[in-house]
């Protein structure tokens, strides 16, 4: 069905796309449908590996509430044009055309009912229908611009093309084939690259704090977490390395080394009010029992011991606290200032923040302003979405934008 042939590479194509992931495959069939002659090459042994592992194997392929404000970039206007021309509804129509059953899990996040491989099969089917050819195991040695053409030297032969599309993503998950190749090519053609860092990534914590939190590993609770004027209400997960869960992944994209994050462990409740009321109505109740109404006893008592070591607060009856103590306990639960000592890095990060500077790229076509025929799409650009299907929506939208022009 797809054209993953073993034939020698053609020596000339109209459009060469490097990277057979979400953005590259999208661009391939959109351009193929316009009658352009397309070849997609990838160094990996399989195409679309990140699509396959995405969304816990069910691919959170878009978000129906997608807005430019769901993206982080040094140029916040850049993503607007492509996102408005290829919307979540356009991708949903494609998914429906292929009879892929899907559902909204929460917060506008659309997932496959079955498996992520349905989305990859759909993209490959569309590529096949449009005549786009795909080759894996193809390593690129060198790229040279000569007149109106690009000469691309690979382990499978030399190819020349009129349009060259870089869809090789960022540095996240090197084990899945991620490389800094796209940034290297951008620099070769004198485009600026915004410094990168791991995003949508769990936090690590220092050994001392980790020991104190160790009993909580595997526990999860809804929180509100803030950093750098941004906040997210989602679940936090304590892990054996530190903190994870959707709330933490989201805020990690706004966190810089040394910053503290602010965690509200009981966001919906005025804890001071509750504690004062309990002191009046149930004076003999223990502090930990009262707080355990809102989370497990274990989660309730571990932070109290961390914040007030040697005070024995957790086992004390509520009538032994004055109002100042209760206020200070409530404040800690609502405003836990936590300083991660780092992140798990690109090894587990879902995305890479930063990348090819959007000021050097046309927001209409994805073509480099300084180099006719050279295009950048998907995550290699300095456009990073929030968690929840936004990163794929950017891959589809930027891929489609380039596909209309290459
Ligand atoms: C574990 C995980 C889960 C995720 N889940 C979701 C989700 O549910 N929803 C969501 O919206 N986003 C999710 N993401 C993010 C999403 O997968 C990416 O943002 C998206 O795939 C980016 O598309 P892309 O085409 O730019 O890059 P990719 O899809 O990563 O494709 C890049 C391709 O380029 C190839 N390549 C790289 N370097 C070279 C080279 N030097 N030569 C040749 N080929 C090369 C790679 O092999 C790869 O096939 C997830 C990411 C991860 C890591």
SSE blueprint:
Layout: E1 12-18, H1 22-33, E2 38-41, H2 49-53, E3 60-63, E4 71-72, H3 78-85, H4 88-97, E5 102-104, E6 109-112, H5 117-130, E7 133-135, E8 140-146, E9 149-154, E10 157-166, H6 181-188, E11 193-199, E12 203-204, H7 207-213, E13 220-227, E14 230-238, E15 242-244, H8 246-252, E16 261-264, H9 271-281, H10 287-291, H11 297-307, H12 323-334, E17 336-338, E18 342-343, E19 351-356, E20 374-376, E21 384-385, H13 390-403
Parallel strand pairs: 1-2, 1-10, 2-7, 10-20
Antiparallel strand pairs: 3-6, 4-21, 5-6, 8-9, 9-10, 11-19, 12-15, 12-18, 13-14, 13-16, 14-15, 16-17
This protein binds flavin-adenine dinucleotide.
Kindly describe this structure:
- The chain is an alpha+beta fold and 406 residues long.
- It has 13 helices and 21 strands.
- The protein folds into two domains: 12-198 and 345-403, FAD/NAD(P)-binding domain, CATH 3.50.50; 202-343, Translation factors (Elongation Factor Tu (Ef-tu), domain 3, Beta Barrel).
- It has helices at residues 22-33, 49-53, 78-85, 88-97, 117-130, 181-188, 207-213, 246-252, 271-281, 287-291, 297-307, 323-334, 390-403, and strands at residues 12-18, 38-41, 60-63, 71-72, 102-104, 109-112, 133-135, 140-146, 149-154, 157-166, 193-199, 203-204, 220-227, 230-238, 242-244, 261-264, 336-338, 342-343, 351-356, 374-376, 384-385.
- The strands form five sheets. Strands 1, 2, 7, 8, 9, 10 and 20 form a seven-stranded mixed β-sheet that branches. Strands 17-16-13-14-15-12-18 form a seven-stranded antiparallel β-sheet. Strands 3-6-5 form a three-stranded antiparallel β-sheet.
- The radius of gyration is 25 Å and the shape is elongated.
- 46% of the residues are buried.
- The chain binds flavin-adenine dinucleotide.
- Flavin-adenine dinucleotide (FAD) binds next to helix 1, helix 2 and helix 13.
